[in-house]
Amino acid sequence: MHGSQTIFDGLDGVGKGVFAKAIIEEIKKTSLKFFDIHAYWSKYGRHPTINELSAYDVVYLSEPTFHVPSGSMIREELILKENRNKYSAEEIAQAYALDRSILYEKVILPARKKGIHILQSRSVVSSLTYQPLQARLNNEKKITFNYVKNLPGNKKALKNPPTLLVIPTINSIDDIIERLNKRSKKDNAIFENYEFQLKLKPYFESKKIRNLFEKKGTIVIYPDAGVSIDYSKEQAKNIWEEYIKNFLKI
Fold first, then answer.
1. CATH code for the domain of 29
2. Across the chain, what does the average pLDDT equal?
3. Which residue range forms the structural domain that includes residue 41?
4. Where are the alpha helices (DSSP H) in the chain?
């Protein structure tokens, strides 16, 4: 049995983590063996081998990777606010694609092949939205949607599409910025500002993104994350019941 892949993607601060954590809570109520890769990354600074993952049923991960060289380069250098304008949208797009390519080769593809299910925060969808917008704002005309889509790591991800893509949406960008300001975990990223997120919102909600993935057989849904945390958790439970439980055969 090929393992499923559920991805949560969207604007900064929209509540991807709320949805993912609610699903994880449901997984932990079952007999499934759950592995959070972030603690492993933090301890060892590398990806686990497939032999290390083979005892688990579900793996939770995120992009860009944490404490792994390719991901650390992005988080600790390329997208920091103090390094604004030092690196082009092209350089950042290529770095994300490389980090993604390694993650797919080392973890996602071998795990899914073994029947292990992937739960994931952020993905190639972020590259297909953030970098074309960043390039437009920087007047980097070469860096189009198609350019980003065809970077090797992104082609690899699109060739192996997720089973379910969840893009939480919100009406007010003011709410997004308020959430980011209240968040204890500060990414200090160049993209976490009102103007960028406002322009980014229609990219995530575009037919181009939806059609790209639905044509590959991915289920794409857009839950409303703007009501309350409790409402988001309720929707996450509905997603668990309607989709993910079936993927996990429970």
1. 3.40.50.300
2. 94
3. 5-247
4. 16-28, 37-44, 50-53, 69-73, 89-103, 109-113, 124-138, 145-149, 152-159, 173-182, 194-204, 207-214, 229-239, 245-247
